[in-house]
Amino acid sequence: MLWLACVPVQSTHAVVRRTEWSGVTIHGHKIVYAVRGRGPTLLLLHGGGDSGEHSFERQFDEFSEHHRILAPDQVGQGRTPDVPGALSYTAMMEDTAALLQHLRLRHVDVVGFSDGGVLALMLAVRHPELVRRVVISGVNIAPDGLNPEDLEELRASQTPNPKTIDEKLTHLWLTSPTTTELSLALLRQIVQPVLVISGDRDDITLEHTLKIFRALPDAELCVLPDTDHGTFSGRPGWLNPIISAFLDRV
């Protein structure tokens, strides 16, 4: 199904809920996560170099009206300290799975933006018992899914021994996801419903997004007009009702 959002929908927030922060040791290092609201758990996975609270700052209030939001910050990002070594999608995904297991959560809805969407798809492949439905936006399953000009810019800025989080992210984006982490064949194994979102001017090429959509056995596609990579921050009036309807569907 193709959903093309063209008419803004305004929403109101009658109740402002407080975000609570917690930390837990996962795989020998600390993971900090935000919690807000009550109801079925909604796992929000942030974009690279960002935080859960910031990536979804225009979703927290609305989604927490009917969900218990769980938004972890990945290593070296947001409030979670960095760890030695390179960043890895596999390691971040396993940290996220371990956090859900620590909190005794299963069958949760997962919304992932950019890098968070990569993690959401990997969770659905490797830990299907943890995931009920998936929403992704601005996701690639290989570096060549990025726009060519963005790839060239990343290559020009890479360093031989990445140490800072920005340098580590550049290395991650130029080398991952690997074919063992995500591929069209792995996407075909995902049985959960997936809503695939893209801006029509996204950092990920539309052709790459369509490959992801077509490989998923149970997927819907939402292309937002006149929209760049920042779908959640730039188009909440369009996107929030679409996501809510997808998650609430029986």
Q: Mind explaining what this structure looks like?
A:
- Helix content is 34%, strand content 22%.
- It is of the alpha/beta class and 250 residues long.
- It has one domain (2-248): Alpha/Beta hydrolase fold, catalytic domain (Rossmann fold, 3-Layer(aba) Sandwich).
- Strands 1-9-8-7-6-4-5-3-2 form a 9-stranded mixed beta sheet, sandwiched between helices.
- Helix 3 crosses helix 4.
- It is globular, with a radius of gyration of 17 Å.
- The protein starts with a strand and ends with a helix.
- Mean pLDDT is 93; it is low at 1-16.
Architecture blueprint of SSEs:
Layout: E1 2-4, E2 20-26, E3 29-36, E4 41-45, H1 52-55, H2 60-63, E5 68-73, H3 89-102, E6 108-113, H4 115-126, E7 131-137, H5 148-157, H6 165-175, H7 184-187, E8 194-199, H8 206-215, E9 219-224, H9 231-234, H10 236-248
Helix pairs in contact: 3-4, 5-6
How many H/I helical runs?
10
Q: Uncertain segments of ≥5 residues (pLDDT<50)? A: 1-16
User: In sequence order, what are the helices and strands, one letter per element?
Assistant: EEEEHHEHEHEHHHEHEHH
| Class per helix and strand makeup | alpha/beta
Major sheet characteristics: 9 strands, mixed
General form: globular
**Structure summary, number of beta strands:** 9
The CATH C-level name is Alpha Beta
